Amino acid sequence: MGEKSFIVPLGDSDKDRYRLDCTITRGHVIVFRIQYEAFIDGEWRPIVRYDTAHGYPHRDLLHPDRPEEKTMWPGRSSTEILTIGQEDIKRNWVAYRVWYQKEMGQ
What pTM did the predictor assign? Predict the structure, then answer.
């Protein structure tokens, strides 16, 4: 069983990153979390997270002042959702940040 954990900066500043933690067995992702975080108002805020925290792969879109929105992909493997999540965060982190700050009233 292999475990990986790392943080990847996004963009040209040090205010955006994604965090990835995963456990791989025989080439298959068993457990994972990939989360986009933005440094806003003096703290790191999770904005979007793909994980297996509830026993199945899903995405949580987090809000500053209300519960998260959960998206599931029945029939998709953890490996597939980890890849989808990583690509989504790399492509859309700027839009996620703008959207989140708008929800904060900024």
Answer: 0.91
Distance CA 52, CA 102 (A): 28
In this structure, the number of other CB atoms found within 10 A of the CB of residue 34 comes to 23
In the chain, where the domains are located:
2-103
Q: What distances in angstroms separate CA 11 from CA 79, 83, 92, 93, one per listed residue?
A: 25, 20, 11, 9
d(CA 18, CA 11): 11
* 89 in Cβ contact with 18 (< 8 Å): yes
For the stretch 20-57, pLDDT in tens is 998 888 888 889 999 999 999 999 999 999 999 888 89
Task: Write the CB contacts of 82 (distance below 8 Å, at least 6 apart in sequence).
Answer: 22, 29, 32, 34, 50, 57
95: CB partners within 8 A, 6+ apart: none
51-55's contacts with Cβ under 8 Å and 24+ in sequence apart are 52/78
